[in-house]
């Protein structure tokens, strides 16, 4: 029991550290707005403007202000206001907590996203998660257009002791994915993670290529891929919403992983993404180490974001 509690507190500490820039921005901002003031319309307007500027989204910020207006708080404080916001965020995000059940074998992850979001590193961290759980994992370097991408994934394969599947530069990524799944079945792998090329959401030819990968691997089993996970960069704030919308039109996105939250004060963007798109959130990335991928938990995330213990 003690070991379990230590693990939970360890994860929360890592999450809190990873979200420190976002939580400091939000906590300090709320303190400045609330300090020594009554909750009147002027204060509420100032607070709403601040929450919107903190990437929490206009709709959600408006709802928070309405909740505070109804609360009739006699002695407002920064902590009381943050608790109201934290509960609201937790309630919004709880239905979107994503837990993957590895019933299929091999369980196929298809990892998608634009260039530069930390997709390949996320694949490596996801591999580490399942290797640590004693699963046999394979990684597929399906970005066949950049030799550096294959080399980077090979490094993660070595770090995590995962099987590695690759092909010659400029090979067909759909064919490689197909062949890798067949090999994974022969090798009795538990998990196969396909790292696709970064593609801008406005490039139709690359989006067609992604459709082809999905179409081809479904010829092995209609349930493949078992999970299509979109990786978003927490640094780009609400621009990530547009990315998610376009990828969602191209393929059925099952889950999100939000990366680079340790390097940004824009962690609040998860709120409007959740509110608008209602895509489950699998994990958040809070650092560069292989252990720095944390399963998403609405309560822990909302408390860390608001700087609450």
Summarize the structure.
With 309 residues, the chain is an alpha/beta fold.
Count of strand segments:
8
**What's the shape?**
elongated
Mean pLDDT: 89
Strand order, largest beta sheet: 3-2-4-1-5-6-7-8
Distance between the termini: 21 Å
- N to C succession of SSEs: HHHHHEHEHEHEHEHEHEEH
β-strand percent reads 5-15%
Structural class: alpha/beta
List keywords for this structure.
12 helices; eight-stranded mixed sheet; alpha/beta
Please explain how this structure is put together.
The protein has 309 residues and is α/β, with parallel strands linked by helices. It is built from 12 helices and 8 strands. The chain has helices at 2-18, 20-34, 41-53, 58-71, 78-93, 119-132, 147-160, 173-186, 204-217, 239-250, 270-277, 298-305; strands at 107-112, 137-142, 163-165, 191-196, 227-233, 255-259, 281-285, 293-295. Strands 3-2-4-1-5-6-7-8 form an 8-stranded mixed beta sheet, sandwiched between helices. It is elongated and about 65 Å long. The chain starts with a helix and ends with a helix.
